[in-house]
């Protein structure tokens, strides 16, 4: 009888492990601590450390080939008080969930490529940066670093970035392995961009995971509306946009030798918005005359958090549509047009993640979900993603 009980316990543990082995990387935009009203985000109050397997604090920058703290007021403590002490509070979440891993991300869109290209071209500079990065991660109590250079050999970079990026990851891996630290990277999704920046079979040797940014395929500065995070190709899309969707991007990375277990598919918890030229012409591909209006929390034209979107839907009458080919919702109200993800579209994305047996998913970013439950349950999109890839109901 005892042997039977032990066997049953082992089976239950094994089933639980099998259902929970998918990783969920959750990026956190640290500037959200300054947002007003319902958009204000507090690390201790609003992050549930049991949801994500990995939390990524964004961002630090690069200056003189060393890590530069971009917002000391938000990130650090102060003897005089007043500072928000973000790093310490973020890493303290592991006390509530010892299985949780925390990472610091360097780079991001606003950093561009120039400084990273300069650092990576010189062996001495690379060595200095790698040592500095490992020290920084340990000093502030993180488990690793997410390298978010957007993008090698582009945006002010140089052709030699492609090889230098490999050399940089190689030396970072050496320093990080000395202290058992994680090293991940956020990477371009499409073949047209990724092929310019990476030799995928080489870079993947040195990375624990790649966070493939399968979103922002279209943004509000374009002259026509389009879906920013389509799961599949639309039949009416031009040949120019072939491959500009999550499925094609993931399959490209797989075709280039990236192990499926290292791939985390990006899922956005925000939308992109456009201003229609004519409110009566409001289909996908309708003429747009600029980005949509800024949200009251994110305050960025052309971008809206899901928390802003769901509140707008409660307060105003929006015409909500769902594109069955791309598996993407969109909505319009007067001159405003929004492309976003909802519970339905994220469920479809979890199906692809499981079908391709990927390592899991990553989200950008937790503070743009409905984290307070203003429109219903807390974190509706994140919970849908987690439940989907871990076969929970």
Automatic annotation (TrEMBL):
**Under the cellular component aspect of Gene Ontology, which terms does the record hold?**
extracellular region
Molecular function terms in GO for this entry? chitin binding; endochitinase activity
Q: Which residues form the GH18 domain?
A: 22-392
Q: What are its E.C. numbers?
A: 3.2.1.14
Q: Which Pfam families match?
A: Glyco_hydro_18
**SMART domains per UniProt:** Glyco_18
Instruction: Choose any GO biological process term that the UniProt entry carries and state it.
Output: chitin catabolic process
Its domain of life reads Eukaryota
Read off the Gene3D superfamilies from this record: 3.10.50.10, Glycosidases (3.20.20.80)
Membership in a protein family: Belongs to the glycosyl hydrolase 18 family. Chitinase class II subfamily.
Q: What is this protein called?
A: chitinase
